[in-house]
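Hi X.,

You mentioned you wanted examples for the new student's onboarding notes, showing what a folding record looks like when two proteins sit in one file. Here is a clean example. The first protein comes first, with its sequence line followed by its structure tokens.
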Amino acid sequence: LNHIIMKNYFYYSVKFLFFLISILIISCGSPKKEIRDSYEEDIIGFWERKGTIEVVNGIPVDTLIWTDSDDTKKTRQVKFFGEGNRIFWISNISDTINNPWPGGNGGYGKYKIHARDSLTEYLTNGTGWFGAYLKNRKDSLNVKNESFGFDTYLSKNSYSQFMGDNAMDQDSKNQNTGFSEYYVKFPPSAPKTKLDGVWKRVYEISYVNGIAVDTTSVPSDVVLDIKTMYRGRFIYQVDQTGLAERGLALHGGFGGYGQFEYDGKGNLVEYDEFGSGNFPGSLERGPKTDGGYKKVTFYSDDLFLQVDKDTLNQGGMGFGSAETSNKTFRGLVYERVK
């Protein structure tokens, strides 16, 4: 009997020991997963650049805030990191002396965040000067994207990035000096809606007097119209480098940043704040002023039609006339990018 009791005691002791070991493994493993996932979550959202951090021998020595200087107080740059590792950025910094477009520049592609202190951008398309640069690099090197590696600092509400080994400023690298872009996270300006996500224009529909008269596909290798909408903010980039030669205004495309309101019933208002490429710099506005009104119709969760509303009864593309009373509008069909 004692032999049987001891055998059972040993059997259940071993089972209990394995149970304790399993609990310890799970409890020790969970924080690691939480840490790994937290920076992937923290990076998601819209970020506004506030200035520049001067770095010497890897040590931050000074922070230059844009609004503190008359030269940069009107400068805007916004970056978006989204689910699916999509990245958008746009700036109103323009170079009208060397380029034919009045707006700033921007980029689009994918990113990989390796840790809180390391991130790589793989950019494929853009607008303004940067769009022209990417097009030239892809064609000359026969590559699909241009990669940019950054040393980063990421917290929940602030982010900075310092270009690493592929820095274009070799003098700064040799002198162990450089500048880090400093960003602060935008708070959400609206709740999540059905429009939240990344979208690509796939069709364009022409309307005359409210009747669809023509539908045209939009090949991405000629024109890439890509748009992200997230928690009440948006960025769009229209890369037209495949449509026009370098040096022409059309080559710079156009893009914009702003905020939007959507009531869930098909009524969308977009408030552009600043733009890139051929977006006129004179149209820069404050937050939520002079909105553009759209009618949205969802074909499915991943496909919708957007048409400008004729709030002034003039015809969306300026083709209406007193003689013909024809009003021509453009409908844009967007497909979700997954």
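Then the second protein repeats the pattern, sequence line and then tokens:
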Amino acid sequence: GLGVDVSPNDNDRLMLTVEVVSPGNGSEQVGIFTKTVTVEGKSLGEAVGAIAEKTGKEPSLGQCGVLLVGSSLYETRDFTDVVEFFVQSDGFNENAVPCCTSNARELMNKSAALGQSVSITLVEALRDQAKKIALPTNSLLRYARSQAELSQTGYLNFVEFTPSENSDEQSEGKEQGYFLYNRIAIFRSNRYVCTMTEEETRGFAALTAKVVGDTFSVTHEGKNYALRTNGKDVKTEYVDGVMQVDVQLQVKLARADSADVGGMFTERSNKMVTEDILAQVEQQASSALAAFLNMQRRENADIAEFHEILRRIYGTTDELCNMPMSDIDVEVRVKVVER
């Protein structure tokens, strides 16, 4: 994994933090071992070269699974040069997961409570499990394209660290805890726009067809229930001057008496879900969608790709390129069914 910040000593220099992951070797070493190396450079190319000088090994960008961008960089300037450096590098992994955080160096020097490698933990959550836990995610290539296409707007997952009381002698000196991914930061032309709230992020997840796993908590006859989304159908059409969005969520009662790999709730239904329960889920989903769409209008940001739908109908025009989100009327219909 790689983390990029602005140098705390010189605003004109970049600080690159690299997490090197290696398996244990020898009879007494078990598991995965990590080390971080931090270097600086006027450019990323200079910083990458400094890694080789410092470690004696040429860094392999093709093995990088996650790219972390610190707020000292993304909140202060356009970071197109950083994105282009990686995207245009022959050996870089275009499917690497890009995300942002308050301080990339600090996050790289933490330790996950359930696994020692920050990079592997982030990749597993943001790439391998994201579709199952109601979390829209990106790849570096898709993000780079979003910044150059019609609305020039895209997103990165915002990662936070929460300390725990765990301790691990193999991670001595590293604070242990958990990583939270429940918010998303929006960028236009590689400039920071805003960080969405949890509710707004949940609404964006509801609009993302391939993302399932959202859990809704409801109350019925004095009892609390959890329902988990296990399927979804999202259809967006522009009809008679209105962007019509139809979202159908398929849910089941969720129980935690057994779980599959990844810690998901096992979906079980011992009795029919009542209409009242379905109505509560529909209200919660509708509220989250409304929060997300209000954010898009407020920030004039289109990560739902409504402009792209219009482009397919009318072609690329100056009027469309400059059309604010407030000029796009959106109508959302939500239906929740048990399945």
